[in-house]
Amino acid sequence: MTPALIPDRDQQITAWALAARDGDADAIEHFIRATHLDVWRFVVHLGGDVHGADDLTQETYLRALAGLPRFAGRSCARTWLLSIARRTVADRYRAAAARPRIAETTDWRAVAERAQPAGLPGFEEGVALLELLATLDAPRREAFILTQLLGLPYADAASATGCPVGTVRSRVSRAREHMTALLRAAEDSCPLTATPLTHIHYRVICF
């Protein structure tokens, strides 16, 4: 979906959320279908855990549906939903921190490779993007994902994260600078090799 179509999409999503709040069962289904991929991608990138993403996504929607009676439509419903997803991931981390850890997954590439069939178009580029995102600190990664991958306007991303718009812009800018520097270093070290990292340079970061 092109950026120009995102406002219309968000308006429709918000309309479905309001109708769902008023008891329209079809609107609930439309709302979930229209936002499910965004929520799933967001929790994956925040937590780096593909295998736990389905549970986190389900928990997000359970919380959202329970909170629908209080949704007044003052903000975009997608922004509101991603705010809930953010809190759901944070709560899961707090709960995990309170109990002994048996194992911790930090290899994003291995997680992605186990969860997706290799050989599909864009697979290597997607794994490479996960690697780049993993090098960012959490606030910059979150800001970049919300605005550059999920297409939220900066104001909505600021609302979802609870920080000023200027802070979101700064985090995205610094994230781009950091990721671009890594890409250039990769290109300089292997100038004759077209790696997945170089393929996503202009598609994802420089636009």
- Count of helical regions: 10
- Rg result: 18 Å
Q: How many strand units?
A: 0
Order of helices and strands: HHHHHHHHHH
Pfam families: Sigma70_r2, Sigma70_r4_2
Keywords: DNA-binding, Sigma factor, Transcription, Transcription regulation
Domain RNA polymerase sigma factor 70 region 4 type: 128-179
GO biological process, one term: response to stress
Detailed description of the structure:
Residues 1-5, 100-124 and 192-204 have low confidence and may be disordered. The protein has two domains: 1-105, RNA polymerase sigma factor, region 2, helix turn helix motif (Rna Polymerase Sigma Factor, Chain: A), CATH 1.10.1740; 110-207, Winged helix-like DNA-binding domain superfamily/Winged helix DNA-binding domain (Arc Repressor Mutant, subunit A, Orthogonal Bundle), CATH 1.10.10.10. 74% of the residues lie in helices and 0% in strands. It has ten helices and no strands. It has 207 residues and is an all-alpha fold.
Can you summarize this structure?
One of its GO terms (molecular function) is DNA binding. The chain is mostly helical and 207 residues long.
Task: Walk me through the topology.
Layout: H1 6-21, H2 25-47, H3 50-67, H4 77-97, H5 108-115, H6 123-134, H7 138-149, H8 154-161, H9 165-189, H10 196-205
Keywords: DNA-binding, Sigma factor, Transcription, Transcription regulation
Pfam families: Sigma70_r2, Sigma70_r4_2
GO molecular function, one term: DNA binding
